[in-house]
Amino acid sequence: xxxxxxxxxxxxxxxxxxxxxxxxxHFPFPPKPSHNKYPIPFRSLTVSFAITESTESDSPKSLxxxxxxLFRELADCFDLPPDYFAQLPRDLRLDLNxxxxxxxxxxxxxxxxxELGETLLNLSRAWELADTSTSRTLASKIPSLESSxxxxxxxxxxxxxxxxxxxxxxMGQYGQGELQRISKAMIAxxxxxxxxxxxxxxxxxxxxxxxxxxxxxxxxxxxPGKAITGSAxxxxxxxxxxxxxxxxxxxxxxxxxxxxxxxxxxxKSLRGALLALCYSSTVLSAFATVGLLLLAxxxxxxx
Length: 303
Description:
The protein has helices at 2-14, 43-53, 60-77, 90-104, 108-112, 114-128, 132-145, 151-169, 178-208, 224-249, 261-302, and strands at residues 211-215, 218-222. By secondary structure, the chain is mainly alpha-helical. The chain has eleven helices and two strands, in the order H-H-H-H-H-H-H-H-H-E-E-H-H. Helix 4 packs antiparallel against helix 8 and helix 10 (224-249) packs antiparallel against helix 11. A two-stranded antiparallel ribbon has the order 1-2. The longest helix is centred in the C-terminal third of the chain and has 42 residues, at 261-302. The protein is rod-shaped. The model is unreliable at 1-58 and 204-208 (pLDDT under 50).
């Protein structure tokens, strides 16, 4: 009897036991059932992690290569079965609509350029309609548009990718983890674009920085050309002030004839005030002319 009871225990213990972690939100891939309808390869996530970890210390050339690889990886993530988006549950369809809004909201054509902006608009409509085939076709075009992006377009596109990627991330685990792979690829690509644009702008900031002249709500950028123009205007104004003061001074006081002494005193005081105003205008114009010329010289030397 004892041997019969021990036999099943021995049989169970002698076979290898495989402990699988329970399916949870933090586990990237749930165990695959053998009857899966849409088998998806696992290669994309490993490549994305490797690429993301290597972006921080690479050279600009390798960063471009990394960005191209991430864009290709992002396009591969949308290589889904034709009816994948259409079969999503209702709550995930709402999240997909939110991602469609984030990827193409606002002036997307002005920010990202004509070609990429139209592609994002069409991609947004495809997500809203749950059109997986159109989404795959449009996503495959994005890697070819990466080289034509400028700094501002890269920054705007990167922000849109990160925002839409977080929408996919909020969908949680579904199927074979396709939505999470899409979110990781979009967030990694968006962060890379934003980081590369920020570093480029930081390097170019001293070259494009200009001084501003503020007077109330008025703001004028100071350039060498504007400083020289201002000095010329100041010089002309100074000459006019000097000529006016000489014309007033050339009038002798004896030629002033008025009805009474009070009128004569008033005329003399006005003559003195005009002379003081003209001379002070001449002096101020001279200082302004010299100062603007020195400022123009300094601005030229900074460039």
